Each structure stands twice: as structure tokens, then as C-alpha cells.
């Protein structure tokens, strides 16, 4: 099976812009979650989706949003970018039926200038 | 709420030596525990997981971890380090918060331990 794919892999934006990141889970996986990784804060949970519904949400401002489509692909959007949003954004997929295992994609590295 | 503490942000060993990366967790309910490895400019790769079955868990690349409830620990070990083991390692915990089976809860990560292997 193909792994989790994330696009784009690298992105440069300026403050105030918005950005959309995409994640395609492993075939058959219906749960997708997103994490932000920064040197200062480490790995932090953003949100989790299952069957197009948000199941859990982390402690991030409303500028961070996400959605999941009927084919389980997910997108996350960050509006009004701030310098502190520079990070590696990781997507993970899970089948749930197979157990609590999340498989991570390679991430999208976002740089905000 | 659950939490994870990894003792030691940097661990250095010689090739062939024992690797021991420490992880302590806090959870009010039985947890699921994981170790992930991250190589530079890559995502996270699952090394091993504890899901309330055997307390000694074997993973990939010769790694194993032992769940000790009394010590709330889940330390990662490998008998003999290899140069290719150099990477950052993350311990993580999640708890199931959905009886409907739509979520195993968020992963809460430790701060990570960078493993350096000297020849």
C-alpha cells in the first residue's frame, strides 16, 4: 500500500497570507489527524477527523481549520499567517479498526516570512 | 489529561553499546503507548506500540520497550547500537475517549530524545 502523502512538501508564505495543506491517507484509512512540529513547542495536536467529522481539536486559535472529504482526504487551512506558524505540519492516518496506530506522512514544511 | 516526559534531550552512545531512552507517562486511564523515530527532514515512523497486551513489546530494527505500570514507564532499549540508529525518538501516549469507535484520542508526545551514535 502507498503511504500517507502530503502536498506540497515545502511552502513559503508571507505574514497575513493564508495557506492550504493537503493529506491523502493510506487507502482504506478513514481517520486523519494533523500535528504541528516546531523546535520550541515540539509536536502538538491540531485536529482529528473521521468520516468527514471533526472528532477532536487541539488548543490552536481559530485561524487553524480543517476538513475531511468523502474519500478521506483531508485539508488544513491556516488563515492570516503569523511568523510563529512556521513549522513542519504532519498528517497521520489510521484505520481505527486495526488498532490505535497512526501512520505519519513526510510532512509539509511551512516557512512564513 | 495525559502527559509524557522523556528524560534526556540528548543521548550519546558508542556503536555496539546498549541504547536506553527513557519515557515516563501520566494517564488517568489505561493508555496506549508508542515510540516513533524521526530522521532528518522526514516524518515519524512507528517503532513499536503497547496496547495492553504483552508488557514487553518488540518493534522494528531490534528495538523493544517494556511497559511498567507501577513505574508509569515505557523505556526504549536496543542491545547494540548501530550508526543508522542516529535519529530523534519520540515517546507518545493516547487514551481512547470514544466508545463509538471513531477515535483513539489525540497523541501526546514527549519532547524527543536525539540519539547520537559514535563509531
Oligomer type: heterodimer
Largest sheet of chain B: 6 strands, mixed
Bulk shape of chain B: globular
How many angstroms does the end-to-end distance of chain B come to?
A: 41 Å
Order of helices and strands of chain B: EEEEEEEEEEE
Largest interface: A-B, 28 and 28 residues
Compact description:
With 113 residues, chain A is mainly β.
Explain this structure to me?
The complex is a heterodimer of chains A (113) and B (119). With 113 residues, chain A is an all-beta fold. Chain A is built from no helices and eleven strands. In chain A, a hairpin with a 2-residue loop joins strand 5 and strand 6 (53-57). The N and C termini of chain A lie far apart (37 Å). Chain B starts with a strand and ends with a strand. In chain B, strands 2, 4, 5, 9, 10 and 11 form a six-stranded mixed sheet that branches. A five-stranded antiparallel sheet of chain B has the order 1-3-8-7-6, with no helix packed on it. With 119 residues, chain B is mainly β. Chain B has strands at 3-7, 10-14, 19-26, 32-38, 44-50, 56-58, 64-68, 73-78, 87-94, 108-109, 113-118. The chains are: A mainly beta (113), B mainly beta (119). At the A-B interface, strand 4, strand 5, strand 6, strand 9 and strand 10 of A face strand 4, strand 5, strand 9 and strand 10 of B.
Task: Indicate the topology.
The complex is a heterodimer of chains A (113) and B (119).
Chain A: E1 5-7, E2 10-13, E3 19-24, E4 31-38, E5 42-50, E6 53-57, E7 64-68, E8 74-78, E9 87-94, E10 103-104, E11 108-112
Parallel strand pairs in A: 2-11
Antiparallel strand pairs in A: 1-3, 3-8, 4-5, 4-9, 5-6, 7-8, 9-10, 9-11
Chain B: E1 3-7, E2 10-14, E3 19-26, E4 32-38, E5 44-50, E6 56-58, E7 64-68, E8 73-78, E9 87-94, E10 108-109, E11 113-118
Parallel strand pairs in B: 2-11
Antiparallel strand pairs in B: 1-3, 3-8, 4-5, 4-9, 6-7, 7-8, 9-10, 9-11
Amino acid at each position: 500500500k502507498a503511504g500517507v502523502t502530503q502536498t506540497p512538501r515545502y511552502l513559503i508564505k508571507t505574514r497575513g497570507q493564508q495557506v492550504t495543506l493537503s493529506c491523502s491517507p493510506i487507502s482504506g484509512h478513514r481517520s486523519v489527524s494533523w500535528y504541528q512540529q516546531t523546535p520550541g513547542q515540539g509536536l502538538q495536536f491540531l485536529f482529528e477527523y473521521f468520516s468527514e467529522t471533526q472528532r477532536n481539536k487541539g488548543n490552536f486559535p481559530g485561524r487553524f481549520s480543517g476538513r475531511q472529504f468523502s474519500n478521506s482526504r483531508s485539508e488544513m487551512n491556516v488563515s492570516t499567517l503569523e511568523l510563529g506558524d512556521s513549522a513542519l505540519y504532519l498528517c497521520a492516518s489510521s484505520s481505527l479498526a486495526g488498532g490505535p496506530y497512526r501512520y505519519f506522512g513526510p510532512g509539509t514544511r511551512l516557512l512564513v516570512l | 489529561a495525559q502527559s509524557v516526559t522523556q528524560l534526556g534531550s540528548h543521548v550519546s552512545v558508542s556503536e555496539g553499546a546498549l541504547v536506553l531512552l527513557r519515557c515516563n507517562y501520566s494517564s488517568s486511564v489505561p493508555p496506549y503507548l508508542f515510540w516513533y523515530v524521526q530522521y532528518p527532514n522526514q516524518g515519524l515512523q512507528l517503532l513499536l506500540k503497547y496496547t495492553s497486551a504483552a508488557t514487553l513489546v518488540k518493534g522494528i530494527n531490534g528495538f523493544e520497550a517494556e511497559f511498567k505500570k507501577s513505574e508509569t514507564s515505557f523505556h526504549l532499549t536496543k542491545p547494540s547500537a548501530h550508526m543508522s540508529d542516529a535519529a530523534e525518538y519520540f515517546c507518545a501516549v493516547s487514551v481512547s475517549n470514544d466508545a463509538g469507535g471513531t477515535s483513539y484520542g489525540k497523541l501526546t508526545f514527549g519532547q524527543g530524545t536525539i540519539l547520537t551514535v559514535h563509531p
